[in-house]
Amino acid sequence: xxxxxxxxxxxxxxxxxxxxxxxxxxxxAATRSREHVDSALNALxxxxxxxxxxxxxxxxxxxxxxxYFEHDDRDRGGLVRESIIRLLAHIGHPADTDLYIRATGxxxxxxxxxxxxxxxxxxxxxxxxxxxxLACAYAAxxxxxxxxxxxxxxPSFTAINVLAQWGxxxxxxxxxxxxxxxxxxxxxxxxxxxxxxxxxxxxxPRALYGEIAAEFAAxxxxxxxxxIVSAIVExxxxxxxxxxxxxxxxxxxxxxxxxxxxxxxxxxxxxxITLLYDLIRECPDRWRSHCREAVALTPESADRDRVLAELDxx
Length: 314
Fold this sequence. Notes:
The protein is mostly helical. The protein has 19 helices and no strands.
């Protein structure tokens, strides 16, 4: 039987993706060396290799995942288990649900800061691939957790996407009401913006969305308000065009103003284009470049020509 070193050399030398898949799985099963484990997993994650994984490869992946669940001191950041969970998710067998559920509850604090957020996010995504209803339950549990990463907002960001996919938006609204401002103060405004974006869908009452959106629009935080702008423009939420206009008219942030104007210009919607032109007529001179950029994206028309002439005559 080849040694671990021989398997790794063979893996490095292999050029056929099917051979790489076989050798990587053999190496993964044979070793507990972190260096060799990483080599095997990196090979399996390649786009040309992962397509060769099928149900017959689950036992090897499960065995290695279970080993690290039982010896998590050898995978403190959860990176090995995250990689294996993603490989199993690619195979997509419901019999691996137990591993996904187990992984959603893994935390590693060093000494107080958690480092396993991406593992929980990967597990939630994998669970969603085999049981959407169960995934929504765990998404509601993970959304807004205190250990949410301050780097990529995981696993809360994935939780929002899972809930939005299945139209289960009540937990998203509760998150915004109870923790939205707190997360903004922690520098996680992008997460709050994403929550506001998905909440504007058809599965949530429009009137209630208007109340929640207005509360956050008043804060004038660009990454937060961009979610509101996206929801209203892309969802054509006509009831809240007034809120959209006020938000873009009052903002003190150029990046938010430009974002809103560009989105309106790209809508190809007559009502939204009219709203865009109204905003441009009221636009401060310091943001005239935003206006020109947006108008250039709109269809040719007499109104467009008039707006351009007005900008030239300022």
